Predict the structure.
Amino acid sequence: MTFEIERRTLLQMLGLGVGGGVLGDSFAAFAQATDAVTIGWPSDVPGWDPNLRFTPDAQPIFKLVFDQPLDQNPKLELVPKLVAKWDMAKDGLSLAVELRDDVTFHNGDKMTAEDFRYTFFERLQSPLKLDIKNSWRKVSDIEIHSPTKAVMKFSSPAPTAPQWLAFLGSYVVPKKYMEQVGAEKFGDKPVGTGPYKLIDYQLNSRIVLERNDTYWGPKPKLKRVTFEIIKDPSARVAAIQSGQVDLVINVPVREVARLRLEPTLAGEINPITRVILLQCRNDQGFTDQNIRLAAHHAIDKAALSKAFYAGAAVPLSVPVTPGTPGYLPNFTFAYDPALARTILAKSGYGPDKPAKISFASTNGHFPSDYDIARAIVQMWKKVGIETDLQTLEYSKYFELNRGAKLPDATLYSWDNGTADPEIFAGYLLNPKMPFSAFKDAAIGDKIANLFSMTDYSERIDGYRDLAKFAVEFGATIPLLQSVQTLARKKALAYEKFGNGWVLANTMRWG
């Protein structure tokens, strides 16, 4: 039986403290009114080449400066953007696109199919280690039929190509300007087609954007947007409460409830298409499947949700969020400490002779991340798994994962803005991609087959089977549907997206 208990009670039961922080930085500019907004953001962009690195938290910033071929509405349905029309061939081997003819880059150059081909084909041939080389690895050519018409050709079926045109890293960059200045200088002075231009950037400190008054699409209401990079969640809380910023994300849930009591502030807890999970390796301390499965059975997810998210984060048995196509509502991976001890005993481990693994978590990157990790450490200890929790910088996570140097288990929030199951289990567990920590050839073969399926129903069923298999194999340990916590001034309105995008070009003062 699972008992729902309050956060403080859980922390005390597990022997954890209730800590806080103080505002450590001062900001040069206070939040402004009517035609400007200042946002407290938890992490910096990885650079200003939007094709280079897949960093989920950077996407709402990149989308202000650059445009994508396709976009998503708040319900996550695909809608036109730079591409006005698109048509996927039935065999999945080509995608015809028709671009808008009224789009210009910030430097005045007109966007054409040449820029589209350069972004999604020519750049992939360069020696640069671009993350879009993974998402667009099947592109064998892009035929240009006119300045506004092109056809993407694929070496094997690419049924989710339209989704990827609206997802991580898929931003059109200017061929002429990029070749003129080079990738490094482009990062110093980026040029996009987006509703804002970058006018000031201070690494790990501040991003200042100014409205692009020649923008081809709907003009934003706000002339200036400032992002203050505030990594510490307590500092973000202090910044919104003192009026130094107008909106912050990823604040502790307990602070949302408190900030709601402020007469000028609003607090929100919004479920989004992210999965809080443990990225697992299949070597070192997690080589033994019994240890991986025991680690999963030992975690009381309902208690974590109640303690740290006021019950708003749905406990998950598969790495897929409820309401999305690949979700399995009737499959449950049980919380069962007794079973965990029995499974560990098969490999000779238990409370008197614990299995030892390495474990890491970010601290303040998403709400209550480090608190969740500390609670898991105590849950594991009770069944016979011992670990010393390490703190991991969000930016360091990507570097370690690409180099196969993550700990045995890492607490992480997996983003899937498209909601398609390929970007859940497919990318999470594909051993040939830099996103996977679990490198298993058998799972890789299953995913390779799914990547080429063009029948939608067959593909979705295949991903459901994959997700169930991966969990029962101990390849991943899903915990909770992630929630986005947000605090803002009541007078500031914005549009909510199911994937958690907070876009300044949708903001306005009431």
